[in-house]
UniProtKB/TrEMBL annotation:
This is Dual-specificity RNA methyltransferase RlmN. It comes from Limimaricola litoreus. Specifically methylates position 2 of adenine 2503 in 23S rRNA and position 2 of adenine 37 in tRNAs. m2A2503 modification seems to play a crucial role in the proofreading step occurring at the peptidyl transferase center and thus would serve to optimize ribosomal fidelity. Its cofactor is [4Fe-4S] cluster. Its main location: cytoplasm. Belongs to the radical SAM superfamily. RlmN family. Reaction proceeds by a ping-pong mechanism involving intermediate methylation of a conserved cysteine residue. S-adenosyl-L-methionine binds at G198, E199, S230, S252, F253, H254, N329. It catalyses: adenosine(37) in tRNA + 2 reduced [2Fe-2S]-[ferredoxin] + 2 S-adenosyl-L-methionine = 2-methyladenosine(37) in tRNA + 5'-deoxyadenosine + L-methionine + 2 oxidized [2Fe-2S]-[ferredoxin] + S-adenosyl-L-homocysteine; adenosine(2503) in 23S rRNA + 2 reduced [2Fe-2S]-[ferredoxin] + 2 S-adenosyl-L-methionine = 2-methyladenosine(2503) in 23S rRNA + 5'-deoxyadenosine + L-methionine + 2 oxidized [2Fe-2S]-[ferredoxin] + S-adenosyl-L-homocysteine. [4Fe-4S] cluster binds at C139, C143, C146. The active site is at E119, C372. HAMAP family: RNA_methyltr_RlmN (MF_01849). CDD domains: Radical_SAM.
Length: 395
């Protein structure tokens, strides 16, 4: 088990409360897809023959320039700006706190409507920067190794709250383009992974609409290949993900027998390994994506034997795949231990020799509990009981 990195610099935490008080009851434009934005503008009195142009203008202000007030939308006539301001808000979730790890990872505590909180993690790397976003407050599923799984589902995030996480982090990184300033080649926020709190495929529409906004070429303009959705295995939604989002897919595989997977990823009792693999075989073809990432958390003595590695290779035969080995990240009260480095390397080696890339994921932001599976909003009172978690582990 790897000890958390010894801090070489103090962890920093700062509080930023950005006052973005919405005008009571007015609909928010952030999170509306283009067709929905069009409908909203028409309903507010935009003439039919102008509406296409208005959608384009607003889209660029909000998602290309990152503008938050109608006042600043200088190519709109004043009366139209006033009409917009009387009918709509441009509202984002609020960053309550930001912690910066000694390795540069930033963890944001984000407050959404109703006072609920989710976590968003920014992971800077040499050539890119990945934002790990949440799709739900809590999770209905109860994967026994996952901290989020100990928290009940409070609610799904809206598309505005999902894309809002990308926008507030772009604010924090000062990454919106500025008129007259040449665009930086390298993006600070270049990739999105739906690997934060929640099961994205149990909030399909919310995630789809938000990702369509992220991919739109007139705005944030991230390629679908730079977006990875991770699912625990909601089989009926996998084909839809290919067809309606088309992003890259990662699947929380984590075990090579139904017996073990039932315990680790209980959704397996509903859709077992065979059914999951069947859906995955069709995915790359449907979405035109390259490879599926199989995520595999390394748990000492549970799923990390040589036999497991051999079985895994056999199971995924014929699927264009890469296997991402995730050293287990502990959390207070977690019922497992991380496999030793030697065990993880031996496991990786078997997979690699079978012809698959088998990167070992470096835990990031462990000192601030920002690593995979450690997210959980401390403020949420609704918890699953310890007895419930223990019963699920023992199965
Ligand atoms: N709900 C989705 C996405 C969120 S979890 C899913 O389950 O796929 C993102 C990844 O982190 C998943 O592969 C998940 O299984 C893994 N994970 C969860 N808890 C972990 C932990 N404590 N240590 C390491 N990985 C963990
Ligand atoms: Fe939910 Fe994913 Fe955690 Fe499982 S691993 S409890 S699906 S967030």
């Amino acid at each position: 088990m790897t000890a958390p990195a010894t801090p070489t610099a103090p962890i920093t935490q700062d509080m930023m409360t950005i006052p973005r008080k919405p005008r009571e009851g007015l609909p928010n434009l952030v999170g509306l897809t283009r067709p929905a934005l069009r409908e909203a503008l028409l309903a507010a009195g935009t003439p039919e023959k102008q509406v296409k142009m208005r959608v384009n203008q607003l889209w660029q202000w909000i998602y290309h320039w990152g503008v938050r007030s109608f006042e600043e939308m200088t190519n709109l006539a004043k009366p139209y700006r006033e009409l917009l301001a009387a009918n709509f808000v441009i509202e984002l979730p609020e960053i309550v706190s930001r912690q910066v790890s000694t390795d540069g990872t930033r963890k944001y505590l984000v407050r959404i409507a109703g006072g609920h909180e989710v976590e968003t993690v920014y992971i800077p790397e040499d050539e890119r920067g990945t934002l790990c976003i949440s799709s739900q407050v809590g999770c209905t599923l109860t994967c026994s190794f996952c901290h989020t799984g100990t928290q009940k589902l409070v609610r799904n995030l809206t598309p505005g709250e999902i894309i809002g996480q990308v926008m507030i982090v772009r604010d924090d990184l000062a990454e919106w383009p500025r008129p007259g300033v040449p665009k930086e080649e390298r993006r600070l926020l270049s990739n999105i992974v739906l690997m934060g709190m929640g099961e994205p495929l149990y909030n399909f529409e919310g995630v789809r609409d938000a990702m369509q906004i992220a991919m739109d070429g007139e705005g944030i303009a991230l390629s679908r290949r730079r977006i990875t959705l991770s699912t625990s295995g909601v089989v009926p939604e996998i084909a839809r993900t290919a067809e309606e989002i088309g992003c890259m897919l990662a699947v929380s595989f984590h075990a090579t027998t139904d017996e073990v997977r039932d315990k680790l990823v209980p959704i397996n009792k509903k859709w077992n390994i065979e059914k999951l693999l069947e859906a995955l075989r069709a995915y790359p073809r449907l979405s035109n994506s390259e490879r599926i990432t199989f995520e595999y958390v390394m748990l000492k003595g549970v799923n990390d034997s040589d036999e497991d590695a051999h079985r895994l290779v056999k199971l995924i035969e014929g699927i264009p795949a890469k296997i991402n080995l995730i050293p287990f990240n502990e959390w207070p009260g977690s019922p497992y231990e991380r496999s030793s480095n030697n065990r993880i390397r031996a496991f990786a080696d078997i997979i690699y020799k079978a012809g698959y890339a088998s990167p070992i994921r470096t835990p990031r932001g462990e000192d601030i509990m920002a690593a995979c599976g450690q997210l959980k909003s401390a403020t949420e009172r609704q918890r699953k009981s310890r007895a419930q978690i223990a019963a699920e582990v023992q199965g």
